Amino acid sequence: MANRIEGVTEKLLEQAMKEFLDKGYTGASLRTIAENAGTTPRSVYTRYGDKEGLFAALVSECADTLKDMFISYMKDYDEKPVDEQKNLFHDDKFDEEYKDYIYSIIDYIYENFNIFKLLIGYGKGDVGFSFAVIKKLL
């Protein structure tokens, strides 16, 4: 097993973020990412397997966190009696109970705005790819 040089992983992720945001997934170059990180493409392949693996390394933590937030709130909703579920959207309790939930999701997305730009297919021609990655992550 090759020795890993300290700081290379962080530089690769930083440069990958810049490259994906600038050129989209399709146009991003692993060679350019590696060169800008001061390493070789081999270090990208060793750490992430391929471009998709590198992209997933950038976005998976945020995607998982957002998914976990959603699941948590849905479990809370699901645990309510059915009659209460039906009436929830028609009374003042909805604002009280779910406004914080909605704001927390919006805040989380804005705190990680660049990652979510990648997830929604920021680059030209990347929308289909992003949805495929999201399906794999979920």
Total domain modules: 1
What's the shape?
A: elongated
Q: Please work out how many helical segments DSSP would assign.
A: 8
Largest sheet: none
Structural class: mainly alpha
Query: Mean pLDDT, rounded to whole units?
Result: 83
Q: Give me the oligomer status.
A: single chain
What fraction, in percent, of the residue positions are helical?
over 70%
> Which residues sit in consecutive blocks of at least 5 with pLDDT less than 50?
none
Features:
elongated; mainly alpha; 8 helices
Walk me through what this model shows:
The protein has 138 residues and is mainly α. The chain has one domain (8-137): Homeodomain-like (Arc Repressor Mutant, subunit A), CATH 1.10.10.60. It is 78% helix and 0% strand. The protein is elongated. The two termini are 31 Å apart. The model has no long low-confidence stretch (mean pLDDT 83).
What is this entry, summarized?
The protein is mostly helical and 138 residues long. The chain is 78% helix and 0% strand.
What is the fold's blueprint, element by element?
Elements (H helix, E strand, L loop, with lengths): L7 H20 L2 H7 L4 H8 L2 H28 L3 H7 L4 H19 L1 H7 L7 H11 L1
Helix pairs in contact: 1-2, 1-4, 1-7, 2-3, 3-4, 4-6, 4-7, 6-7
